[in-house]
Amino acid sequence: MTDAMLAIGTRKGLFLARSTGAGAFSVEPIMFSTVGVHAVAIDTRGPVPRLLAGIEYGHFGPSVMYSDDLGETWQEADRPPIAFPDACGTTLTRVWQLLPSPSEEGVVWAGAEPGALFRSEDGGVTYRLVEGLWNHPHRPRWEPGGGGLCLHTIVAHPGDPRVMGVAISTGGFYRTTDGGLSWEAANQGIRAPFLPEGQQYPEFGQCVHKVAMDPGDPDRLFLQHHFGVYRSDDFGGSWHDVGSALPSDFGFPVVTHPSRPGTLYVLPLNADMDRTPVGHRYRIHRSTDAGESWKPLERGLPEGPVYASVLRDAMTATEAGLFFGTRDGSVYWSADDGESWSQVVSHLPDVLTVRAAVL
Fold first, then answer.
1. Would the pLDDT of 194 be above 90?
2. Is pTM beyond 0.90 here?
3. How far is 334 from 331, CA to CA, in rounded Å?
4. Cβ-Cβ contacts under 8 Å for 333 (sequence gap 6 or more)
5. Residue 158 pairs with which residues in a beta bridge?
6. β-pair type (315-318, 172-176)
7. Which of 99, 103, 335, 342 sits at 20 to 30 Å (Cα–Cα) from 63?
8. Which InterPro entries does the annotation name (predicted)?
9. How far, in Å, are 90, 161, 354 from residue 135 at the CA level?
């Protein structure tokens, strides 16, 4: 591994950590102290990496900051970077997701609360509402999950900018094939057991926690649901359960290996309301056959008991390694595909999001 950067968004601030060569990560002083950082991105597409941070200003509301000098200084657009048009009759609550497009230069996508998608064409400085999704007839019937009515996942096809999908809690998974002009619910096969018998496979309304794309096959998606782990081989056209062999199919994050097709990771949590790690141990479960079988990975992780959960965006897999952060402020790193782990940092505020990139 060459030089790498790790960005850790927490309930009270942003922390950047850097590694040179194969060395350990060194954590830098806090940025945006006392400010919640719910979304981060490291955009390495241009000649200079750009960092993006979706922050909450408290009384001043949410915003997106950007840095072109690896966090030394930060800037904000002259006008609110993300804002709903007046005709929408609502205001921005939070930025949940920032994703540089894999196929369009300068384009950055933002997922927001309440249940909206925004598009930037200037590298993430300013954004406009994707009205095709906002005007979908299902939207008025979407219900907020425990974290709010959040658009928390964006998956963009690397070879076709017209194809992408989003997940809304608790609207379900939606996809577009025309660049966002029109959208369709894509939840066939995802069971909602809280509904009455005979109505447990609705068109929309599933409590999707996270979705990840297989880099070896962009049509293959993996989905962590409130009630299962699912796979789709046709970009959400249909789904089938691949979580029955896990100790619990409840959890929040799901991530895929950046270069190994069919390899994905989840972190099972107790499905009851305490939402602690199963057995009160952090055990990342890895599948190398697209969810057909699973292997628990824990060497180097705390022997327990541990009680802090891992949120939907607090795990990432990149060429820099596999990382996850916990709600008690620890971040763990594996440089060998999860076989062994080391602690990057502890005693941070509640970790909300983790992103990493080779620079």
1. no
2. yes
3. 10
4. 6, 25, 321, 322, 323, 341, 342, 343, 344
5. none
6. unpaired
7. 103
8. WD40/YVTN_repeat-like_dom_sf, Xyloglucanase_GH74
9. 13, 21, 31
Q: Read off the pLDDT of residues 61-101 as tens digits, 9 standing for 90 and up.
A: 899 999 999 999 999 999 999 999 999 999 999 999 999 99
Would you say 331 and 344 are in contact if contact means Cβ atoms under 8 Å apart?
A: yes
Residue with tokens 């709903």: 84
- Mean local confidence (pLDDT), 47-58: 94
The residue among 299, 304, 301 whose CA lies nearest residue 276 is 304
What is the rounded distance in angstroms from the CA atom of residue 187 to the CA atom of residue 345? 38
Q: How far apart are CA 88 and CA 41, in angstroms?
A: 27
Give dist(CA 135, CA 147) in Å, integer. Answer: 22
CA–CA gap between residue 61 and residue 39 (Å, rounded): 15
CA–CA separation, 331 and 351 (whole Å) = 8
Of 116, 131, 97, the C-alpha closest to 210 is 97
Q: Pick left, alpha or beta for residue 78 (phi over 0 → left; psi -120 to 50 → alpha; otherwise beta).
A: alpha
Joined together, the tokens standing for residue 85 give: 């048009």
Strand, coil or helix: what is 278?
helix
Which tokens sit at 116? 């909206």
Tokens at residue 276, please? Answer: 């602690």
Compute the mean pLDDT over every residue in the chain, rounded to the nearest whole number. 96
